[in-house]
Design a protein that fits this description.
Blueprint (H helix, E strand, L loop, with lengths): L7 E6 L3 H12 L5 E7 L14 E2 L3 H4 L6 E4 L4 H13 L3 E4 L2 H18 L2 E3 L10 H8 L5 E7 L2 H13 L3 H11 L7 H4 L2 H14 L10 E2 L7 H9 L3 E10 L5 E10 L12 E8 L3 E8 L3 H16 L21 E8 L3 H10 L7 E2 L6 E7 H6 L1 H6 L3 E4 L4 E2 L15
Helix pairs in contact: 1-11, 3-4, 4-9, 5-9, 6-7
């Protein structure tokens, strides 16, 4: 087929970083047989790289245009994205979205709409930018048991940690630099508080295990309280601090998911993932561990994932969700623990926190210039106190794998971090 004779007419909703990146890629490849026929944006007054007559300011105009073959939604408003995408699916439309927060909250409903009305929804760009992990899990590993899918899913927080490690800068300086570079939002809480990688972990759980998780029930601890002393603690042990999202099968067959900072050594492939890059380890029963890495953010890397989905739609591709019928139950906090590193500049504050987390007083290492404690902590305690920990400026990192509480280790055991 000569695509140039019958180009696929695309309706693009959003023209920010990703929307413009996607548009640029299409313009540079006229042979793809794609035409961005209409573009909807919210603000008429924002300066843009295209003339004003290329835009409409009502996204619903695109929903009501039957000449558009595919709708591409790349806005940052999760509620509006859900309204647009769900409406399009009710019309039986083909849709591509990059909105991970919207997907994590509404995926079961969207899959139901897809099945009921015959539309197709693809969303590779919602998870880890340019890395083709959703389709890899959904297609290539659809029938192989997976032990775990874990990795660095957020380029903004990874960039901050890299700058703190390499330049010795404090958190505020590194964050400001990330914002100037365009890697972090003006309001950094979604990235630095690990809400963004939590959404991505929830999406991957659907494809790795058929499990549809509620993001509000998944523990996420961020790096807002990380200090130079925490980076130095890790470095003195040959390790780095990384924010690691993990979805894994427990020994009892249930699925666990969480996102926390973790101390990693060079034995983990994630140790070498720096700057705004993401890295994903897919640990399969028979194939073993696979490692994917690439740019996790940015207009062109994420735009390339949007393009891959548009081309897949032209071929009639849809996600299979092969594991959904036999999805295991989730076990998100109950009966699980991890070996924790907990720090705060004030030893008095830290002592109080140890009582919250049910760590003994002798878990504290007061001789250090920067007080910290180590020991096994139940996930339920971290979950119960997560808001207080964040408000008090407590930094928490795990030093190894999540495990059932029955396998407790002594409070002072220095557990080697594993990926």
């Amino acid at each position: 087929m000569n695509h140039s004779e019958h180009p696929l007419r695309l309706g693009l909703i959003g023209f920010g970083c990703v929307g413009q990146g996607f548009y640029d890629i299409i313009e540079q490849q006229p042979g793809l047989g794609l035409a961005v026929a209409r573009i909807a944006v919210k603000s008429p007054n924002k300066p843009r790289t295209l003339p004003p007559d290329r835009f409409t300011y009502h996204a619903d105009d695109l929903l009501h245009d039957p000449t558009l073959d595919v709708l591409v939604e790349v806005i940052d408003d999760a509620a509006e994205a859900f309204r647009l995408v769900s409406t399009a699916l009710r019309q039986g439309r083909r849709v591509v979205t990059a909105n991970k927060a919207m997907l994590a909250r509404h995926l079961p409903e969207l899959v139901q709409l897809e099945q009921e009305f015959g539309g197709i929804l693809l969303y590779e760009a919602a998870v880890c930018g340019s890395i083709p992990v959703v389709r890899t899990l959904d297609s290539y590993f659809s029938h192989e048991p997976l032990r775990a899918v874990r990795g660095i899913f957020n380029g903004s927080s990874n960039y901050v940690l890299t700058r703190m490690s390499e330049a010795g800068s404090d958190y505020a300086t590194a964050l400001a630099e990330a914002q100037v570079q365009g890697f972090a939002e003006t309001d950094p809480v979604l990235d630095m508080g690990a809400f963004d990688p939590r959404s991505k972990a929830v999406i991957l759980a659907a494809h790795a295990y058929g499990a549809f998780l509620n993001p509000d029930e998944v523990l996420n601890l961020g790096i807002e309280a990380v200090g130079a002393a925490d980076i130095a603690y890790a470095a003195a042990r040959g390790q780095k601090v990384k924010v690691v999202a993990s979805v894994e099968r427990l020994p009892n067959g249930r699925v666990a998911a969480l996102v926390t900072p973790q101390l990693l050594g060079p034995e983990s492939p994630l140790y070498a993932v720096e700057q705004e890059f993401n890295g994903i380890i897919i640990d399969a029963e028979y194939a073993g561990a696979q490692f994917l890495t690439g740019r996790g953010a940015g207009g062109h890397p994420t735009g390339s994932a949007v393009l891959a989905d548009v081309l897949a739609l032209r071929r009639g591709h849809r996600y299979g969700y092969a594991r959904r019928a036999a999805a295991p139950a989730a076990q998100l906090t109950e009966g699980l623990e991890l070996d924790a590193y907990v720090s705060h500049p004030d030893a008095g504050v830290l002592r109080e926190v140890l009582t919250w987390l049910e760590l003994p007083p002798d878990a504290l290492h007061p001789d250090s210039a920067y007080p910290y404690a180590t020991g096994p902590v139940a996930l339920q305690q971290l979950w119960a106190w997560r808001k207080e920990l964040r408000a008090a400026g407590i930094f928490v990192a795990r030093r190894g794998a999540v495990r059932p509480v029955a396998n407790a280790v002594p409070a002072h055991a220095e557990v080697a971090a594993v990926a």
